[in-house]
Amino acid sequence: MRTVLLTSIILSLGTALAAQDPTYTQTVTGKTTTVTILDNTSKAWIDPMIYGQMLEDCNDAVIYGGVVDEKGKENPKVVEMLQPLRIPVMRWPAGTAIYDYEWKKGIGPKEKRIAVNELIWGGKEYYTFGTDEFIQWCGKIGAEPYINISMGNNSLIPASLGEAVDWVEYVNGPATSQMGAWRAANGHPEPYNVKFWCIGNENYLTARDIHKKESAGEYADLLILWAKTLKTVCPDLSLLGVGYNAPWNKVVLDKCGDQLDFLTLHYYMSAKIKDNDIVEPWKTLFGPVRFEESLKKNIALLKEYNAKSGRQANPLRYSIDEWNNRHSVFSDDKYSFTRKDDRRQFDVAGTAGMLNVFLRNCPYVGMANYIFPVNGHGLLKTVGNDDAYKSANYHVFDLYRANMTGCVLGVKVEGPGMTGIRLGDLRMDGEHDMDPETLLDLCYIDCAAVAAEDGSLNIALSNRSYDRPQKVKVELPEGYSVAEAVGIQSGDVKAANSAASREVVKPAPVQVKKNTLTLSPCGMVIVKCRPVQN
Phi, psi (5° rounding) for residue 354? Predict the structure, then answer.
């Protein structure tokens, strides 16, 4: 029995990043797809934080009506159902909502907290799920808390450096400090020791009347001051800075890279939905390709910075701080963005495609936060204040989190697909660093492979064809065989779970014969392989 590949991978776990990047190639040809696992490894360790999540009070029952009710009472079913996902990190108060979030209003007895109108997204911020509640809730589901600080530039809302210093001290300071004493008086004498903090959010954009967009230089100049000051309060912070496009990122890296552990990027797939169906589905299902091409441009920038600054052993990485598949639904003769549209079987393929991109680029993507775990575009949908059910995307995260960690492996894909796809036609919201006129040949089958932590060799496959099943043959390194396969293949690309029918889309065993299996349209499968026993 030959186990050289697996042995070398296990020995490489936890080592510094190797010079060789993960290998991934695809060629459009033939009628059956062949996926070949290459007999090499990049020694690229997959950070489980790529399976992170984000909470934001965005008037779509994510926090209030999701995690808790208006009085701050938790939905016990949400905690129960999120625990098995082993969510590694949870970002909060999140994105744009931070610009009118005043953290001190969410501290102390809940009955004394006053609800206010949420200025960014509408609705109410009840402040009954504040800093203490968030951190303690993360402890219940097993997630590392990640706090995003506002760096607003409008005097109407307190978003000063002093407010940020107080927040860090409240969370991490000793009980002998002024803010730490306040925390202790609220029943928590020991510091929470929250590691991850981001300074700002999309500072390159205007957020209503609360934040005016800044140039990269303006943001970077403030970031240097804020980062250094916050580290005087708590030297061990892992700080995240706001990233955007390559020109912006270069300025921030050059000026502030030595203060940061991550630079954030936001990428959103998008889909036009009419009668529960995607319009021009290939533009959405191949959307992660556009993201990956943009990411490659920024990876080159990051590699240059890490080499120049001598940070190969402790590299600065990207956090894909916000991502999902945004639906614009046709109604009243127009398409309108909504977070309430169901996650369907076609979202399974899109979500798997994005996770595969993170895996293939794991030396440079160290965190990613899907929005949201609850309601909105979420993994769970709540029913009242004490019940919830799993959306289609819940099962994607469940399978990937359980099976797709360890070291990434090289992969070669050869099979049917589409030729001459114009990169600019693929749907991704926001500005991206890529040439829209680039033409690509893309296989319907997308995949990533890992040498997993339990000793198995696992392959994640997704079918980007909306209307055709795809036959796939897996070529394994000598000495390995397929042990089992499980997939999310409802047979209906428009299928979704609901409160009344909760298991329409769910995982099920997949038959594999002679290393060959079939993926249904928009289906995904994880194939688990083990060394052959003599």
Answer: -65, -45
Structure tokens that stand for 313 in this block: 């052993």
Residue 224 has pLDDT above 50, yes or no: yes
Q: HEC states along 120-153?
A: CCCCEECCCCCHHHHHHHHHHHCCEEEEEECCCC
Nearest-angstrom CA–CA distance, 501 and 344:
13
* 136 plus 196 within the same structural domain: yes
* pLDDT range class, residue 203, cuts 50, 70, 90: very high
Per DSSP, helices labelled H in 234-286 are 246-256, 281-285
Once rounded to an integer, what is the mean pLDDT over residues 485-502?
Answer: 97
Q: Which long-range contacts (CB under 8 A, 24 or more apart) does 244-250 make?
A: 244/202, 244/204, 244/216, 244/431, 245/431, 245/432, 245/433, 246/297, 246/298, 246/301, 246/433, 247/216, 248/204, 248/216, 249/216, 249/298, 249/301, 250/216, 250/301
pLDDT digits (tens, 9 = 90+) for 243-283: 999 999 999 999 999 999 999 999 999 999 999 899 999 99
What mean pLDDT, rounded, does the chain reach? 93
Q: How many CB atoms lie within 10 A of CB 357?
A: 25
Parallel, antiparallel or unpaired: strands 116-117 and 439-443: unpaired
Looking at the structure, tell me whether residues 275 and 421 fall in a common domain. no
Q: What tokens appear for 17 in the block?
A: 């990043």
* Domain coverage including residue 144: 48-403
- The three-class DSSP label of residue 183 is helix
- What residues pair up with 344 in beta bridges, in sequence order? 496
Q: Are residues 89 and 17 located together in one domain of the fold?
A: no
- The percent of residues in the chain predicted with pLDDT above 70, rounded, is 95
* CA 82/CA 374 separation, integer angstroms: 9
pLDDT in tens, 100-122: 999 999 999 999 999 999 989 99
Sequence letter at residue 431: E
What's the half-sphere exposure (Cβ side, CA atoms, 13 Å) at 436?
A: 7
Q: Which residues pair with 25 in a beta bridge?
A: 412
* Residue whose entry in the numeric block shows the structure tokens 């400090």: 177
What tokens appear for 510 in the block? Answer: 């997949």
Q: How far is CA 293 from CA 24, 229, 286, 352, 435, in A?
A: 13, 36, 12, 17, 9
Strands 445-451 and 439-443: unpaired
CATH number for position 476:
2.60.40.1180
pLDDT band at 13 (very low <50, low <70, confident <90, very high): very low
How far, in Å, CA of 531 to CA of 481, rounded?
6
| Distance (Å, whole) CA 349 – CA 395 | 12
**Is 30 within 8 Å of 351 (Cβ atoms)?**
no
Widest Cα–Cα separation across the chain: 72
Query: How does residue 420 score in pLDDT terms, banded at 50, 70 and 90?
Result: very high
Same domain, 447 and 378: no
**Secondary structure percentages of the chain, helix, strand, coil, to 5:** 30, 30, 40
